Amino acid sequence: MDITVHHQGTPHQLQLSDSATLQDLSTEIEQIFDIPTDNQKLLISPKPGMQKAPFPPTPLSSLLALDSPKFKITLLGTPAKAIADLHQQSESTRKRLEARASALAAARRAKHKSSSSSTSTRTSGIHTLSSSSSNYTFHRLLPLSYLPRPERSLEFLQRLRDDPGIRAAMAKHKFSVPLLTEMNPAEHTTSESRTLGLNRNKGEVIELRLRTDAYDGYRDYRTIRKTLCHELAHCVFGPHDRDFWDLTAQIEREVERADWKMGGQRLTEQDFYDPGDWERVQSGEEVIDEQGWTGGEFVLGGLGVDEAGDDAGRGGGSLTRREVLARAAEERMRKENSKKTTEDA
């Protein structure tokens, strides 16, 4: 049985026995591409679609539509060595930034001994955080290694972590988040809407939709930052109640006020910018999240899906998507009526 597998835009010919199963195909891929089975995802078209580990022992002859003109197998995954190199690079970057922050903090203490007990200072309209605020940040950044160009996503996550407005807000509210990672758009998109973010267990992990649906670019930075403000508010409040929305609005104002770079600079010329992003959130086409997600266990390498194989955005006790959209519509109507009453007065 001759099968063509496409990986990173290049076709590769594989030869298997007529009785080979999906497990056999995964084993062959691991030997040829050096991609561990747990990191493999096979997009098989036209059917059966996306296949993930653990792969069942289903005969390929009954699973694949080999005679279809649309038949294609696309392998998503990164070799083990590349993953190890990425983790090593991330750790090296973290240590370098920590050393730099420590040196800067020591210099500030030597220069301003009289104000060493102050948590922050304001000079010429610029808000500078003290060294104690280094605890209130994202302690680890993790892009999805099985998607194209994970190094770009790492740069985007670093930009969010180092954003002056985000740093100031996290220091003020004493938010310390162990892991900031990206969300796989394919696993959080339905025919009804797209989910933009997720907060697990009140700040244990925050996931953000960085990429466009086709993985060919990145979304509007300010929209992603607004989503991050929303997810940070879930570190305090789980349900989308009045207290939650008040805190979200407060964090957004603090981030905008402390953003002395006024939006900073572009991450790369490949950034995707769509000024209608946030308008789609307000119209309900895109959903920020389905409340703070509580429970389960976060497993690296299985981002977006918990151990039971369920969508991690559907934690127990959360509102349904329809209820979230209904509440959003009610809130918009309330604001419109309030505005109309003010104008009439």
Automatic annotation (TrEMBL):
<feature type="compositionally biased region" description="Low complexity">
    <location>
        <begin position="115"/>
        <end position="131"/>
    </location>
</feature>
<feature type="compositionally biased region" description="Basic and acidic residues">
    <location>
        <begin position="320"/>
        <end position="345"/>
    </location>
</feature>
<feature type="region of interest" description="Disordered">
    <location>
        <begin position="87"/>
        <end position="131"/>
    </location>
</feature>
<dbReference type="InterPro" id="IPR013536">
    <property type="entry name" value="WLM_dom"/>
</dbReference>
<feature type="region of interest" description="Disordered">
    <location>
        <begin position="304"/>
        <end position="345"/>
    </location>
</feature>
<dbReference type="Pfam" id="PF08325">
    <property type="entry name" value="WLM"/>
</dbReference>
<feature type="domain" description="WLM">
    <location>
        <begin position="129"/>
        <end position="334"/>
    </location>
</feature>
<protein>
    <recommendedName>
        <fullName>WLM domain-containing protein</fullName>
    </recommendedName>
</protein>
<dbReference type="GO" id="GO:0070628">
    <property type="term" value="F:proteasome binding"/>
</dbReference>
<dbReference type="InterPro" id="IPR029071">
    <property type="entry name" value="Ubiquitin-like_domsf"/>
</dbReference>
